[in-house]
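Example record used in the benchmark description.
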Amino acid sequence: MTKNSKDIWIKELKKLLKTELATVYVTTSNKRFLSLDDALEHEMDEEKKREIIKKKGIIIMKIYELLSRVLSKNEWGVFFKGEPLEGHPTQDGMKIYRVNEVSPDKLFDEIKSESKQMEIECQEDLNQQTEGES
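Model output (structure tokens):
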């Protein structure tokens, strides 16, 4: 092959190849988009989800603070209903009893788990209602 025919051959091959350089947009959730509008839309949806989660956390904390304030203001406590008194043996064989009280951390955790359970149930109810309307 001569140099001239080689150059022609390379030019013909280059015509068959397509090269694209594109900007890829990566969102905070590590999703990739070729379109800026799609990436921005996805990022706005993610930001809305983050705001909802943050608001739910604040609401749960406020419920806990309100409940704790009411309990302490009235000098009330939360105890285990099944075993309200806890017996501790002494050296002389007698028992000292104390109230089997629920810790504040346990109360907060239970409020969080119950709110999540309520949210799941509400979502299931909404899904059933929308399926019934279809």
